[in-house]
Design a protein that fits this description.
Structural class: alpha+beta
Number of strands: 7
Helix content: 55-70%
Radius of gyration: 21 Å
Strand content: 5-15%
Number of domains: 2
């Protein structure tokens, strides 16, 4: 970083928080989620009683606000559509094609939310060291490969999960499938997508809690990660219950499959609403 580090925190190869001494006295703290979501560094000058926050430049702030709003709204709508699809399925008011169409529309919004979340990480201001510590905005990028960054890995797993869900949702339109084909083309991608969502959430906790188990009830970012992870757990329960038994051709538990999807989707919508408030 170019500055004497006082303490580096995180898990394994991931650094999620850095605390260092400033040349002018005092300390500065860089936190991964705080910097990429709100575009700020925490600074405590020598002798000061309160912590100050230095902002990134106007370009970065505008960029972060727009990307955050797009991702949040996409997850709100996507979750609402998934919940609507599950409700239609549970009530029996629509046929299989109608339910699949609602789910597919919701999946497109999840794809959008996942990719924009990744873009937010890729184009977030970076701390480069020197002076009193600044967040510097680099040129816009549509893609990067940074697997040693926990925020990149978390959002990449999320985006990959939405793409695998897209395979599951497209295959659900196929007609005349036997039990083996249903489990291979529809159920298997569903489970893989849920696993990727769970991995994304676990990495989100690593970033927010700096590698240690924690409950941070006053931290909005922690609540967003926790509610999304609850939604991922409910999605996984739904996916496991949706396995089609080869012997009978019936689901393991149709009610759990439907209600797991509905409640999990509502969790993602609610987390999206909270995310609207996590901006610069």
């Amino acid at each position: 970083m170019g500055q004497p580090e006082q303490r580096a925190e995180g898990a394994g190869p991931f650094t999620t928080r850095l605390t260092w001494h400033l040349p002018s006295g005092g300390t500065a703290v860089w936190e991964s989620r705080l910097a990429r979501r709100r575009g700020v560094l925490a600074v405590r000058p020598l002798g000061a009683a309160a912590t100050l926050y230095t902002r990134a430049d106007a370009v970065a702030i505008t960029r972060l606000r727009r990307l955050n709003a797009i991702a949040a709204i996409a997850f709100i709508i996507g979750g609402a559509l998934f919940a609507a699809g599950a409700a239609v399925s549970q009530s029996g008011s629509g046929d299989a094609t109608e339910c699949a169409s609602i789910y597919f529309a919701g999946g497109l919004f999840f794809n959008t939310g996942g990719y924009v979340s990744l873009l937010q990480v890729i184009n977030a201001p970076r701390h480069v060291g020197g002076g009193d510590g600044l967040l510097v905005t680099h040129r816009w990028r549509w893609w990067s490969y940074e697997p040693m960054r926990v925020d990149w890995l978390s959002t990449f797993a999320l985006f990959a999960g939405t793409l695998v869900f897209a395979v599951n949702l497209l295959d659900s339109f196929l007609q005349g499938l036997n039990v083996q084909q249903v489990n291979r083309l529809i159920w298997a991608p569903d489970v893989i997508g849920c696993l990727l969502f769970l991995v994304s959430g676990l990495l989100g906790f690593v970033e927010t809690c700096h590698g240690r188990p924690c409950v941070r009830t006053r931290n909005l970012g922690w609540w967003i990660v926790a509610i999304n992870q609850l939604g991922s757990v409910l999605f996984m329960a739904s996916a496991l219950a949706a396995f089609t038994r080869p012997a009978t051709g019936s689901l393991v538990n149709a009610d759990i499959a439907t209600w797991g999807t509905l409640t999990g989707a509502l969790c993602f919508s609610f987390a999206g609403l909270l995310q609207l408030g996590e901006h610069p």
